[in-house]
User: What shape does this take?
Amino acid sequence: MRKSWWKILCVILLVYAIAGGLLVKIPNAPLLEETSRNLFYHVGMWAAMFVLFTCSLVHSIRYLSKSNLKNDIAASQYASMGIVFGLLGYITGAVWASYTWADPNNPGFSFSTIAREPKLIGTAIALLIYFAYFILRSSIQDMDQKARITAVYNIFAFAMLFPTIMIVPRLLPSLHPGQEGNPALNFKDVSPEMRMIEYPAFIGWALLAVWITTLKIRINYIKEKHFIK
Amino acid sequence: MKPIITLFKKELLLEIRQQYSFYGILLYMGATIFVLFLAIEEPEKEIWNGLFWVIQLFICINAVAKSFMQESRARMLYFYTISSPTHFIVAKLLFNCLLMLVMTAISLGLFLAFIGNPIEKLLPFTGLALLGGFSLSMVFTFLAAIAAKARQNAAIMAVLGFPLIVPQLMLLMKLSNTAFTVNQSFQWSDILLLVTLDLLVALLSIILFPFLWKD
Assistant: This one.
Protein backbone atom coordinates (compact mmCIF):
# COMPACT_ATOMS: atom_id res chain seq x y z
CA MET A 1 0.00 0.00 0.00
CA ARG A 2 2.80 2.38 0.87
CA LYS A 3 4.43 1.82 -2.51
CA SER A 4 1.28 2.08 -4.58
CA TRP A 5 0.02 5.45 -3.34
CA TRP A 6 1.12 7.13 -6.59
CA LYS A 7 -0.82 4.65 -8.69
CA ILE A 8 -3.97 5.45 -6.71
CA LEU A 9 -3.19 9.14 -7.08
CA CYS A 10 -2.76 8.62 -10.82
CA VAL A 11 -6.20 7.00 -11.18
CA ILE A 12 -7.87 9.69 -9.07
CA LEU A 13 -6.21 12.50 -11.02
CA LEU A 14 -7.10 11.00 -14.40
CA VAL A 15 -10.72 10.36 -13.42
CA TYR A 16 -10.86 13.95 -12.21
CA ALA A 17 -9.21 15.21 -15.39
CA ILE A 18 -11.46 13.29 -17.75
CA ALA A 19 -14.69 14.03 -15.92
CA GLY A 20 -13.75 17.61 -15.09
CA GLY A 21 -12.30 18.18 -18.54
CA LEU A 22 -15.60 17.32 -20.18
CA LEU A 23 -17.79 19.15 -17.66
CA VAL A 24 -15.89 22.35 -16.89
CA LYS A 25 -17.20 25.60 -18.32
CA ILE A 26 -14.95 26.64 -21.18
CA PRO A 27 -14.48 30.32 -22.02
CA ASN A 28 -16.04 30.75 -25.42
CA ALA A 29 -12.96 31.64 -27.46
CA PRO A 30 -13.58 32.34 -31.13
CA LEU A 31 -12.30 29.66 -33.50
CA LEU A 32 -11.52 27.27 -30.66
CA GLU A 33 -14.90 26.97 -28.99
CA GLU A 34 -15.36 23.57 -27.38
CA THR A 35 -12.18 22.08 -28.88
CA SER A 36 -10.11 23.79 -26.19
CA ARG A 37 -11.04 20.89 -23.93
CA ASN A 38 -8.36 19.06 -25.90
CA LEU A 39 -5.87 21.07 -23.84
CA PHE A 40 -6.22 18.60 -20.98
CA TYR A 41 -5.46 15.60 -23.18
CA HIS A 42 -3.16 16.81 -25.96
CA VAL A 43 -0.77 18.87 -23.85
CA GLY A 44 -0.83 16.09 -21.25
CA MET A 45 0.82 13.80 -23.81
CA TRP A 46 3.72 16.26 -24.12
CA ALA A 47 4.10 16.42 -20.36
CA ALA A 48 4.21 12.62 -20.17
CA MET A 49 6.67 12.41 -23.06
CA PHE A 50 9.09 14.82 -21.42
CA VAL A 51 8.90 13.07 -18.08
CA LEU A 52 9.70 9.77 -19.82
CA PHE A 53 12.62 11.13 -21.83
CA THR A 54 14.03 12.72 -18.68
CA CYS A 55 13.76 9.39 -16.84
CA SER A 56 15.55 7.74 -19.76
CA LEU A 57 18.34 10.32 -19.48
CA VAL A 58 18.71 9.76 -15.74
CA HIS A 59 19.00 6.00 -16.24
CA SER A 60 21.60 6.49 -18.99
CA ILE A 61 23.71 8.65 -16.69
CA ARG A 62 23.37 6.07 -13.94
CA TYR A 63 24.42 3.34 -16.35
CA LEU A 64 27.60 5.19 -17.23
CA SER A 65 28.49 5.63 -13.57
CA LYS A 66 27.50 2.16 -12.31
CA SER A 67 27.56 -0.12 -15.40
CA ASN A 68 24.46 -1.98 -14.25
CA LEU A 69 22.48 -3.49 -17.15
CA LYS A 70 19.25 -2.87 -15.24
CA ASN A 71 19.69 0.84 -15.86
CA ASP A 72 20.21 0.21 -19.56
CA ILE A 73 16.95 -1.74 -19.81
CA ALA A 74 15.13 1.02 -17.94
CA ALA A 75 16.61 3.72 -20.19
CA SER A 76 15.54 1.95 -23.37
CA GLN A 77 12.04 1.21 -22.07
CA TYR A 78 11.49 4.81 -20.97
CA ALA A 79 12.64 5.96 -24.40
CA SER A 80 10.32 3.57 -26.25
CA MET A 81 7.33 4.60 -24.15
CA GLY A 82 8.31 8.23 -24.69
CA ILE A 83 8.05 7.62 -28.44
CA VAL A 84 4.54 6.23 -28.02
CA PHE A 85 3.40 9.29 -26.06
CA GLY A 86 5.22 11.56 -28.51
CA LEU A 87 3.30 10.00 -31.41
CA LEU A 88 0.02 10.37 -29.52
CA GLY A 89 0.82 14.02 -28.86
CA TYR A 90 1.78 14.58 -32.49
CA ILE A 91 -1.45 13.04 -33.75
CA THR A 92 -3.72 14.84 -31.31
CA GLY A 93 -1.90 18.10 -32.03
CA ALA A 94 -2.19 17.70 -35.80
CA VAL A 95 -5.87 16.79 -35.62
CA TRP A 96 -6.62 19.69 -33.28
CA ALA A 97 -4.72 22.13 -35.47
CA SER A 98 -6.49 20.95 -38.59
CA TYR A 99 -9.87 21.80 -37.03
CA THR A 100 -8.90 25.19 -35.68
CA TRP A 101 -6.02 26.95 -37.43
CA ALA A 102 -6.17 25.33 -40.82
CA ASP A 103 -9.40 25.03 -42.72
CA PRO A 104 -9.80 21.54 -44.22
CA ASN A 105 -12.19 22.93 -46.85
CA ASN A 106 -9.53 25.31 -48.08
CA PRO A 107 -8.06 23.98 -51.36
CA GLY A 108 -4.57 24.98 -50.19
CA PHE A 109 -4.88 22.73 -47.18
CA SER A 110 -2.42 19.87 -46.91
CA PHE A 111 -0.62 17.93 -44.24
CA SER A 112 2.56 19.92 -44.84
CA THR A 113 0.90 23.20 -43.82
CA ILE A 114 0.24 21.70 -40.40
CA ALA A 115 3.53 19.82 -40.17
CA ARG A 116 5.33 23.15 -40.61
CA GLU A 117 4.07 24.23 -37.19
CA PRO A 118 7.20 24.80 -35.03
CA LYS A 119 5.94 22.89 -32.02
CA LEU A 120 5.23 19.90 -34.25
CA ILE A 121 8.68 20.25 -35.84
CA GLY A 122 10.20 20.20 -32.36
CA THR A 123 8.40 16.98 -31.55
CA ALA A 124 9.21 15.45 -34.90
CA ILE A 125 12.90 16.11 -34.19
CA ALA A 126 12.58 14.55 -30.74
CA LEU A 127 10.94 11.48 -32.25
CA LEU A 128 13.60 11.19 -34.96
CA ILE A 129 16.34 11.38 -32.32
CA TYR A 130 14.81 8.53 -30.35
CA PHE A 131 14.13 6.45 -33.49
CA ALA A 132 17.84 6.87 -34.27
CA TYR A 133 18.58 5.76 -30.70
CA PHE A 134 16.78 2.47 -31.36
CA ILE A 135 18.46 2.00 -34.74
CA LEU A 136 21.80 2.41 -32.99
CA ARG A 137 20.74 -0.06 -30.29
CA SER A 138 19.79 -2.71 -32.80
CA SER A 139 23.02 -2.30 -34.76
CA ILE A 140 25.32 -3.36 -31.90
CA GLN A 141 25.54 -7.00 -30.85
CA ASP A 142 27.59 -6.93 -27.69
CA MET A 143 25.33 -6.12 -24.72
CA ASP A 144 27.73 -4.08 -22.62
CA GLN A 145 28.99 -2.15 -25.59
CA LYS A 146 25.44 -1.51 -26.77
CA ALA A 147 24.48 -0.20 -23.36
CA ARG A 148 27.46 2.12 -23.10
CA ILE A 149 27.41 3.56 -26.60
CA THR A 150 23.67 4.15 -26.61
CA ALA A 151 23.85 5.76 -23.16
CA VAL A 152 26.42 8.19 -24.52
CA TYR A 153 24.21 8.97 -27.52
CA ASN A 154 21.16 9.37 -25.30
CA ILE A 155 22.88 11.97 -23.13
CA PHE A 156 24.33 13.82 -26.11
CA ALA A 157 21.00 13.84 -27.95
CA PHE A 158 19.00 14.96 -24.93
CA ALA A 159 21.40 17.83 -24.29
CA MET A 160 21.00 18.93 -27.91
CA LEU A 161 17.23 18.52 -27.84
CA PHE A 162 16.59 21.32 -25.38
CA PRO A 163 18.25 24.06 -27.41
CA THR A 164 16.25 22.73 -30.37
CA ILE A 165 12.97 23.18 -28.62
CA MET A 166 13.95 26.67 -27.56
CA ILE A 167 15.46 27.75 -30.88
CA VAL A 168 13.08 26.39 -33.51
CA PRO A 169 9.96 28.32 -32.43
CA ARG A 170 11.99 31.52 -32.56
CA LEU A 171 12.78 30.95 -36.21
CA LEU A 172 9.35 30.25 -37.60
CA PRO A 173 6.01 31.98 -37.34
CA SER A 174 3.57 30.03 -35.24
CA LEU A 175 -0.06 30.01 -34.32
CA HIS A 176 0.63 28.04 -31.21
CA PRO A 177 0.06 29.67 -27.80
CA GLY A 178 3.13 31.17 -26.24
CA GLN A 179 3.82 33.29 -29.32
CA GLU A 180 2.49 36.74 -29.87
CA GLY A 181 0.14 37.44 -32.71
CA ASN A 182 -2.80 35.27 -31.88
CA PRO A 183 -5.15 36.71 -29.29
CA ALA A 184 -7.55 33.81 -29.58
CA LEU A 185 -4.99 31.34 -28.39
CA ASN A 186 -2.83 32.41 -25.53
CA PHE A 187 -1.96 30.62 -22.35
CA LYS A 188 -2.71 33.78 -20.42
CA ASP A 189 -6.29 33.31 -21.57
CA VAL A 190 -6.61 29.93 -19.93
CA SER A 191 -9.30 30.54 -17.35
CA PRO A 192 -8.68 29.71 -13.67
CA GLU A 193 -11.23 26.89 -13.84
CA MET A 194 -9.33 25.32 -16.73
CA ARG A 195 -6.07 25.71 -14.88
CA MET A 196 -7.56 23.77 -11.98
CA ILE A 197 -7.92 20.79 -14.30
CA GLU A 198 -4.92 21.40 -16.56
CA TYR A 199 -2.16 20.83 -14.00
CA PRO A 200 -3.67 17.79 -12.23
CA ALA A 201 -4.27 16.31 -15.70
CA PHE A 202 -0.58 16.76 -16.64
CA ILE A 203 0.56 15.08 -13.44
CA GLY A 204 -1.97 12.28 -13.95
CA TRP A 205 -0.83 11.55 -17.52
CA ALA A 206 2.83 11.63 -16.50
CA LEU A 207 2.14 9.20 -13.65
CA LEU A 208 0.21 6.89 -15.98
CA ALA A 209 3.10 6.92 -18.46
CA VAL A 210 5.62 6.07 -15.74
CA TRP A 211 3.33 3.33 -14.44
CA ILE A 212 3.06 1.67 -17.87
CA THR A 213 6.83 1.88 -18.28
CA THR A 214 7.60 0.33 -14.89
CA LEU A 215 5.50 -2.66 -15.90
CA LYS A 216 7.41 -2.99 -19.16
CA ILE A 217 10.71 -2.67 -17.33
CA ARG A 218 9.75 -5.46 -14.94
CA ILE A 219 8.78 -7.75 -17.82
CA ASN A 220 12.17 -7.09 -19.40
CA TYR A 221 13.98 -7.78 -16.13
CA ILE A 222 12.37 -11.23 -16.15
CA LYS A 223 13.26 -11.79 -19.80
CA GLU A 224 16.89 -10.83 -19.27
CA LYS A 225 17.30 -12.30 -15.80
CA HIS A 226 20.29 -14.39 -16.86
CA PHE A 227 22.27 -11.28 -17.67
CA ILE A 228 21.41 -8.91 -14.84
CA LYS A 229 22.46 -9.26 -11.30
CA MET B 1 48.52 21.19 -24.26
CA LYS B 2 51.57 19.48 -25.69
CA PRO B 3 49.94 16.06 -26.27
CA ILE B 4 47.11 17.78 -28.11
CA ILE B 5 49.56 19.51 -30.44
CA THR B 6 51.41 16.25 -31.05
CA LEU B 7 48.19 14.38 -31.86
CA PHE B 8 47.07 17.26 -34.08
CA LYS B 9 50.38 17.14 -35.95
CA LYS B 10 49.96 13.42 -36.41
CA GLU B 11 46.53 13.95 -37.99
CA LEU B 12 47.92 16.61 -40.28
CA LEU B 13 50.85 14.43 -41.28
CA LEU B 14 48.57 11.49 -42.02
CA GLU B 15 46.39 13.72 -44.19
CA ILE B 16 49.41 14.95 -46.14
CA ARG B 17 50.81 11.44 -46.58
CA GLN B 18 47.50 9.85 -47.59
CA GLN B 19 46.29 12.50 -49.94
CA TYR B 20 43.72 10.28 -51.61
CA SER B 21 41.13 10.96 -48.91
CA PHE B 22 41.52 14.73 -49.12
CA TYR B 23 41.29 14.69 -52.90
CA GLY B 24 38.43 12.22 -52.65
CA ILE B 25 36.37 14.72 -50.67
CA LEU B 26 37.36 17.53 -53.01
CA LEU B 27 36.22 15.49 -55.99
CA TYR B 28 32.98 14.59 -54.22
CA MET B 29 32.34 18.27 -53.61
CA GLY B 30 33.26 19.31 -57.13
CA ALA B 31 31.14 16.59 -58.70
CA THR B 32 28.10 17.43 -56.53
CA ILE B 33 28.28 21.12 -57.32
CA PHE B 34 28.78 20.37 -61.01
CA VAL B 35 25.67 18.17 -61.03
CA LEU B 36 23.76 21.02 -59.37
CA PHE B 37 25.11 23.39 -62.02
CA LEU B 38 23.79 21.13 -64.77
CA ALA B 39 20.45 20.58 -63.05
CA ILE B 40 19.55 24.19 -62.29
CA GLU B 41 20.63 27.50 -63.67
CA GLU B 42 20.73 30.71 -61.65
CA PRO B 43 18.49 29.69 -58.72
CA GLU B 44 16.57 32.13 -56.55
CA LYS B 45 18.29 33.54 -53.48
CA GLU B 46 16.56 31.30 -51.00
CA ILE B 47 17.11 28.18 -53.08
CA TRP B 48 20.78 29.10 -53.49
CA ASN B 49 21.05 29.43 -49.73
CA GLY B 50 19.24 26.17 -48.99
CA LEU B 51 21.31 24.24 -51.54
CA PHE B 52 24.53 25.67 -50.17
CA TRP B 53 23.83 24.50 -46.63
CA VAL B 54 22.58 21.08 -47.62
CA ILE B 55 25.72 20.54 -49.69
CA GLN B 56 27.81 21.70 -46.71
CA LEU B 57 26.05 19.08 -44.60
CA PHE B 58 26.87 16.27 -47.03
CA ILE B 59 30.46 17.38 -47.45
CA CYS B 60 30.84 17.47 -43.69
CA ILE B 61 29.53 13.94 -43.25
CA ASN B 62 31.96 12.64 -45.87
CA ALA B 63 34.92 14.63 -44.60
CA VAL B 64 34.47 13.82 -40.93
CA ALA B 65 33.21 10.24 -41.13
CA LYS B 66 36.58 8.78 -41.96
CA SER B 67 38.36 10.47 -39.07
CA PHE B 68 37.57 7.65 -36.66
CA MET B 69 36.92 4.85 -39.13
CA GLN B 70 40.41 4.96 -40.59
CA GLU B 71 41.80 4.04 -37.18
CA SER B 72 42.08 0.30 -36.96
CA ARG B 73 41.30 -1.54 -33.73
CA ALA B 74 44.94 -2.15 -33.01
CA ARG B 75 45.87 1.45 -33.58
CA MET B 76 43.10 2.63 -31.25
CA LEU B 77 44.49 0.30 -28.61
CA TYR B 78 47.89 1.87 -29.14
CA PHE B 79 46.50 5.38 -28.68
CA TYR B 80 44.69 4.13 -25.61
CA THR B 81 47.98 3.23 -23.99
CA ILE B 82 49.81 6.44 -24.82
CA SER B 83 47.31 9.28 -24.59
CA SER B 84 44.31 10.44 -22.58
CA PRO B 85 40.85 10.44 -24.15
CA THR B 86 40.44 14.19 -23.60
CA HIS B 87 43.59 15.01 -25.55
CA PHE B 88 42.58 12.58 -28.28
CA ILE B 89 39.10 14.02 -28.82
CA VAL B 90 40.29 17.63 -28.62
CA ALA B 91 42.93 16.94 -31.27
CA LYS B 92 40.31 15.28 -33.49
CA LEU B 93 37.89 18.18 -33.01
CA LEU B 94 40.56 20.73 -33.87
CA PHE B 95 41.73 18.84 -36.93
CA ASN B 96 38.22 18.26 -38.26
CA CYS B 97 37.39 21.93 -37.75
CA LEU B 98 40.43 22.92 -39.79
CA LEU B 99 39.53 20.40 -42.51
CA MET B 100 35.95 21.62 -42.65
CA LEU B 101 36.97 25.29 -42.74
CA VAL B 102 39.14 24.56 -45.79
CA MET B 103 36.33 22.58 -47.41
CA THR B 104 33.78 25.33 -46.73
CA ALA B 105 36.02 27.97 -48.27
CA ILE B 106 36.58 25.86 -51.40
CA SER B 107 32.93 24.94 -51.81
CA LEU B 108 31.87 28.57 -51.38
CA GLY B 109 34.28 29.47 -54.18
CA LEU B 110 32.89 26.72 -56.41
CA PHE B 111 29.32 27.78 -55.65
CA LEU B 112 30.06 31.37 -56.61
CA ALA B 113 31.79 30.25 -59.78
CA PHE B 114 29.23 27.71 -61.01
CA ILE B 115 25.84 28.49 -59.50
CA GLY B 116 26.07 32.27 -59.65
CA ASN B 117 26.46 35.01 -57.08
CA PRO B 118 23.26 36.44 -55.65
CA ILE B 119 25.02 37.47 -52.41
CA GLU B 120 24.97 41.18 -51.62
CA LYS B 121 27.21 41.09 -48.55
CA LEU B 122 29.94 38.63 -49.39
CA LEU B 123 32.19 39.15 -46.39
CA PRO B 124 29.59 38.52 -43.67
CA PHE B 125 28.31 35.52 -45.64
CA THR B 126 31.82 34.06 -45.81
CA GLY B 127 32.16 34.50 -42.08
CA LEU B 128 28.85 32.77 -41.50
CA ALA B 129 29.75 29.94 -43.86
CA LEU B 130 32.97 29.35 -41.94
CA LEU B 131 31.15 29.47 -38.61
CA GLY B 132 28.62 27.00 -40.03
CA GLY B 133 31.34 24.64 -41.22
CA PHE B 134 32.89 24.83 -37.78
CA SER B 135 29.57 23.99 -36.06
CA LEU B 136 28.84 21.10 -38.42
CA SER B 137 32.28 19.57 -37.95
CA MET B 138 31.98 19.73 -34.13
CA VAL B 139 28.70 17.82 -34.00
CA PHE B 140 29.67 15.26 -36.62
CA THR B 141 33.09 14.55 -35.10
CA PHE B 142 31.43 13.25 -31.96
CA LEU B 143 28.84 11.31 -33.94
CA ALA B 144 31.63 9.79 -36.05
CA ALA B 145 33.18 8.54 -32.81
CA ILE B 146 29.88 6.90 -31.83
CA ALA B 147 29.37 5.40 -35.30
CA ALA B 148 32.93 4.07 -35.40
CA LYS B 149 32.47 2.44 -31.99
CA ALA B 150 29.31 0.79 -33.25
CA ARG B 151 31.35 -0.46 -36.23
CA GLN B 152 28.92 1.07 -38.65
CA ASN B 153 29.27 2.93 -41.90
CA ALA B 154 28.63 6.61 -42.55
CA ALA B 155 24.92 5.94 -43.08
CA ILE B 156 24.24 5.53 -39.38
CA MET B 157 26.10 8.76 -38.77
CA ALA B 158 23.64 10.57 -40.99
CA VAL B 159 20.70 8.96 -39.21
CA LEU B 160 22.08 9.92 -35.81
CA GLY B 161 23.14 13.38 -36.87
CA PHE B 162 20.36 14.84 -39.00
CA PRO B 163 17.82 15.41 -36.24
CA LEU B 164 20.52 16.89 -34.00
CA ILE B 165 21.83 19.31 -36.59
CA VAL B 166 18.45 20.65 -37.76
CA PRO B 167 18.24 23.60 -35.31
CA GLN B 168 21.75 24.82 -36.08
CA LEU B 169 21.16 24.47 -39.78
CA MET B 170 17.88 26.40 -39.56
CA LEU B 171 19.59 29.10 -37.54
CA LEU B 172 22.40 29.32 -40.11
CA MET B 173 19.96 29.50 -43.03
CA LYS B 174 17.95 32.24 -41.34
CA LEU B 175 21.09 34.23 -40.55
CA SER B 176 22.61 33.83 -43.98
CA ASN B 177 19.36 34.84 -45.68
CA THR B 178 20.02 38.35 -44.45
CA ALA B 179 23.23 38.45 -46.50
CA PHE B 180 21.22 38.40 -49.71
CA THR B 181 19.59 41.79 -49.22
CA VAL B 182 21.31 45.07 -48.54
CA ASN B 183 19.07 46.59 -45.91
CA GLN B 184 18.74 43.68 -43.48
CA SER B 185 21.26 43.45 -40.68
CA PHE B 186 22.52 40.44 -38.75
CA GLN B 187 21.10 39.53 -35.40
CA TRP B 188 24.08 39.22 -33.11
CA SER B 189 22.04 37.30 -30.55
CA ASP B 190 21.61 34.45 -33.05
CA ILE B 191 25.34 34.33 -33.74
CA LEU B 192 25.96 34.23 -30.00
CA LEU B 193 23.48 31.36 -29.77
CA LEU B 194 25.41 29.42 -32.43
CA VAL B 195 28.70 29.95 -30.63
CA THR B 196 27.12 28.84 -27.34
CA LEU B 197 25.83 25.70 -29.03
CA ASP B 198 29.33 24.95 -30.32
CA LEU B 199 30.73 25.34 -26.82
CA LEU B 200 28.03 23.00 -25.51
CA VAL B 201 28.94 20.38 -28.12
CA ALA B 202 32.65 20.67 -27.33
CA LEU B 203 31.96 20.32 -23.61
CA LEU B 204 29.71 17.30 -24.11
CA SER B 205 32.29 15.64 -26.36
CA ILE B 206 35.02 16.09 -23.78
CA ILE B 207 32.82 14.76 -20.97
CA LEU B 208 31.33 11.82 -22.86
CA PHE B 209 34.21 10.63 -25.03
CA PRO B 210 36.09 8.84 -22.20
CA PHE B 211 33.08 6.51 -21.85
CA LEU B 212 33.18 5.62 -25.53
CA TRP B 213 36.90 5.18 -25.45
CA LYS B 214 37.23 2.30 -22.99
CA ASP B 215 36.39 -1.07 -24.46
Remarks:
- Residues 107 and 115 of chain A are 17 Å apart (CA to CA).
- The two ends of chain A are 27 Å apart (CA to CA).
